[in-house]
Design brief:
The complex is a heterodimer of chains A (226) and B (369). Chain A is an all-alpha fold and 226 residues long. Chain A has a single domain, classed as MetI-like fold. Helix content of chain A is 79%, strand content 0%. The longest helix of chain A has 34 residues. Chain A is globular. Chain B has two domains: 230 residues, 3-Layer(aba) Sandwich (Rossmann fold); 131 residues, OB fold (Dihydrolipoamide Acetyltransferase, E2P) (Beta Barrel). Chain B has a six-stranded mixed beta sheet with strand order 7-8-9-3-10-11, sandwiched between helices. A five-stranded antiparallel beta sheet of chain B has the order 2-1-4-5-6, covered by helices on one side. A five-stranded antiparallel beta sheet of chain B has the order 14-13-12-15-21, covered by helices on one side. Chain B has eight helices and 21 strands. The chains are: A mainly alpha (226), B alpha+beta (369). The interface between A and B is medium-sized, with 23 and 28 residues.
């Protein structure tokens, strides 16, 4: 394995892990709000958070490139803050991955909160638990399954993205060159051996992760009559 | 037992249903909110608990405002010293029974009398369940855990919303024993919602009748009992009347117990494990009472009571008529066909014989007064 291929794998693992951790923190309150709000803003917010699911990655990547670029409002703010550009950097990749994978993390959690319903929360309230207490001591544990699913789907989706990463991050070895791009490049340069190795690796990893999720979900007993 | 006052004067409109409750209740022992399905009982209870944010008006417990719209006072549910036992015994599925009790105990919000874990475990007989998860419990066990958990919050008021509706007959009878103990054992009043008459007969010290989102009547349960069996509170099929009688003697050979309604007027019921001299309430369904104008001979019915017709009321559009009888001064209803009422020439003042099926005197319908 060349150092460049190893870099790509390591970078991808870092990107997926960091993105998912940050996404969980960002998406949980959104999912909670979507599950329980009666606000009129619910539908537009729902559409907005689902948008990355339906947009071609190139479209999303294009707008992110503009937004994150030194002239864009987020990019220029970042430059003034850190002196570095967001585009073609690892940080930019994290931001892009988070936006691109948002629906995959929000949806399962929101579903889990909805399945739980307001019953256990009302129950907790009558037992003396305030709003934050209810969220942490009842909401999160009851939605455990949805959170696991969300993490895995988010992780897998970050691993597999290509278009957005290419648009925003380019193809800089060690900084923005992730596995999916390395595969594309290998094929372009007719290096099928590397392409095979990386593709098979991703395939096996994805399969293993999904088997793991389904196994975990099965071991958490189905909710009956509660 | 501590008694407290609950002032209710609120309105809650939701989904086209208009609930307007205005009543001052002196809570002592068990107060039953009784009414047909969809009459607003549960919404009333939820408003008292603080779970309905849309309610406007006043909810005041002793001298504390829990809701007062004109000053924008709303004490949220988790700050009211109220415990709520829900119909479906919502236990936390991610915790075992012990964890469920601990959840409540750690957050004990009330300043009611001290309640220890050992107390509730003993009273509700759940020691053997502590390590189990809610999934593995039967409906009755779940309700017992839910009651134990509710009391651990040291409430000053316990609300129960049809806690027995998911249980079969036998388990209900068992659970009633546990519920009955709560006010005295834990020094806390209970408001209990149900649409089952037998639960009212068994539990109620006070009774509040609700129909169509309004309180129809409230007061001491003994004074209101006779109204329970009237529509809209009961369907025609279940309609009946409640009479009081004294246990006179037991007949062990035929496993019967004789209950005396008045001097010389007695009914026999399947054996009852109550001491002689005890006064019981007896619910007689109108459909289990038939009428004869002459004293019948050679029939299997053993309970033939002299009665006077007070009123005959044909039910519109049906083959039936409801006849109100007076048996030794107590009201008994009979539901017979209109044709029979016509043929027997039943009219107010006529002396007849009321025949009551002994087997119809369900044990469940009996209670100590």
């Amino acid at each position: 394995m060349t150092a460049e291929v190893f870099d790509a794998i390591w970078l991808t693992a870092q990107l997926a892990t960091i993105s998912v951790v940050l996404l969980l923190i960002l998406a949980t309150p959104i999912a909670w709000w979507l599950a329980f709000t009666r606000s009129r803003m619910k539908i537009p917010v729902e559409a907005l958070t689902t948008l990355p699911l339906v947009l071609p990655p190139t479209v999303l990547g294009f707008y992110l490139l503009i937004l994150l670029g030194p002239a864009g409002w987020l990019g220029s703010w970042w430059v003034s803050l850190t002196g570095e550009t967001l585009t073609f950097s690892f940080t930019g990749l994290v931001v892009a991955s988070m936006i691109h994978s948002l629906p995959f993390v929000v949806q399962p959690m929101r579903q889990a909160f909805q399945d739980m319903g307001t019953g256990p929360l009302e129950d907790a309230a009558t037992l003396g638990a305030g709003p934050l207490d209810r969220f942490f001591s009842v909401g999160l544990p009851q939605a455990k399954r949805g959170i696991v699913t969300a993490s895995v789907l988010g992780f897998a989706h970050v691993l597999g993205e290509f278009g957005v990463v290419l648009m925003v991050g380019g193809n800089i070895p060690g900084r923005t060159k992730v596995v999916s791009i390395a595969i594309y490049e290998s094929v372009e340069t007719l290096d099928y051996a590397t392409a095979h190795m990386l593709s098979a690796g991703l395939l096996l990893l994805s399969f293993a992760v999904l088997v793991g999720v389904f196994a975990v979900n099965r071991s958490i007993p189905m909710k009956v009559g509660q | 037992m501590s008694s407290c006052r609950l002032d209710l004067d609120f309105r809650l409109v939701r989904g086209g249903f208009d609930l307007a409750i205005s009543e001052t209740l002196t809570l002592d022992g068990v107060t039953v909110l009784f009414g047909p399905n969809g009459s607003g009982k549960s919404m009333t209870l939820r408003t008292i608990a603080g779970l309905e944010s849309g309610a406007k008006g006043i909810v005041r417990f002793d001298d504390t405002d829990w809701l007062r719209s004109d000053t924008d006072t709303f004490v949220p549910a988790h700050q009211r010293p109220v415990a709520h036992v829900f119909q479906d015994a919502r236990l936390f599925s991610h915790l075992d029974v012990s964890g469920n009790l601990g959840f409540a105990q750690r957050r004990a919000k009330g300043d009611g009398p001290e309640v220890s874990r050992n107390d509730v475990v003993e009273v509700f007989d759940i020691a053997h369940l502590l390590q189990r998860t809610p999934h593995g419990l039967s409906g009755g066990e779940r309700q017992r855990v839910a009651m134990a958990r509710a009391l651990l919050t040291r409430p000053r008021l316990v609300l129960m919303d049809e806690p027995l509706s998911a249980l079969d007959v036998q388990r209900r009878a068992q659970a009633l024993n546990f519920i009955e103990q709560i006010p005295e054992r834990f020094k806390v009043p209970v408001i209990y919602v149900t649409h089952q008459i037998d639960e009212v007969v068994r539990l109620a010290n006070q009774l509040v009748l609700i129909a169509g989102g309004r309180i129809e009547a409230s007061g001491r349960s003994a004074d209101l009992m006779s109204r329970l069996d009237l529509p809209p509170f009961t369907g025609r099929f279940e309609a009946g009347s409640i009479i009081e009688a004294e246990v006179k003697k037991h007949n062990s050979e035929f496993a019967l117990t004789e209950l005396e309604i008045a001097e010389g007027v007695a009914v026999e019921v399947p054996f009852l494990d109550f001491p002689v001299g005890e006064v019981v309430r007896l619910r007689v369904r109108a459909r289990d009472v038939s009428i004869a104008v002459t004293k019948p001979e050679g029939v299997s019915l053993r309970n033939v009571l002299p009665a006077n017709v007070e009123e005959v009321q044909p039910e519109a559009d049906t083959a039936f008529a409801e006849v109100r009888l007076s048996v030794a001064g107590q009201a008994v209803r009979a539901r017979i066909s209109r044709a029979s009422a016509h043929e027997l020439k039943l009219e107010p003042g006529k002396s007849v014989h009321a025949m009551v099926k002994a087997t119809a005197l369900d044990r469940r319908l009996l209670t100590r007064r």
